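Proteins fold reproducibly. Take a sample protein:
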Amino acid sequence: MFKSVITVVFFLFFFNNYVEAQDQLITNKLDSVVASKGATVGFSVYILETGDTLSLNGSRHFPMQSVYKFHLALVVLEMVDRGKLSLGQKVLLKKADLPPNTHSPLRDKYPNGNVFVSVDELLRYTVGQSDNNGCDKLFKLVGGPKVVDQYMKKIGIKDVAIVGTEAQMHADYMMQFKNYSSPQASTNLLLKFFQGKILKAGTTEYLMKIMQESASGPNKLKGLLPAGTLVAHKTGYSGSNDDGLTYATNDIGIVTLPNGNHMLISAFVMMSKEIEAVNDRLIAELAKLAFDKYGGKTSK
């Protein structure tokens, strides 16, 4: 009996040391990925089925850019769930709603405006193609950024702020820093969404599908993952200024791992002196690091 107890104690001792060593190894790898880059990086991972977490600057505030279109979509669809809006509802898209100096495939489709489009179409362009004009039309529909910000606080996502539209960010580059989130807050929001704590089953599935089919940012979270990996995500990108400084490039999403588990992941790169390809590769390497660590680990 005594010998058995000693055996168990030694096993637990070596097992705990092994786990700590592995955790330190992944931390060292994270540090090495970002160490040589001229950028501030935030990273947060949560594995739904095991509770494993990974974080780098997880509580720091980063400008979201178009990542906040996911937050907006949640509010729109929550209103759909309550019957305040419907996906088939038509909205007048005026010429004035389609300014030319911003990313907008929706404007490319309807260059003259003055057409009625459905809420469904606005959501698909806004989330799936990161359309800035569609985004601001949806902001008007729900009552403005303040409504979205208040809803985030209501559901317990407190380390986030949404105060300005895409047009306002375009007019004043400092506005993007007021539309912020911490990586952990984004991951927590993904968790609530995926667990069905925000939307009904049908609208949850609807938004998941749009995010899975999104062609935005193919070299970010998805960049180094195996072909066919299911990734539901939303990107954000500020572009670069005349000095080559990128204020923000981001990607958050839900990755289905080879073992069937789900990795909720948020990657933010801020004030980067690197070119776009290097920034995207940085996000891709972080995602691949987490994918390799947790992809073969089964639930507890």
Q: What stands out?
A: The CA atoms of residues 96 and 113 lie 8 Å apart. The domain at 36-294 is CATH 3.40.710.10 (Beta-lactamase).
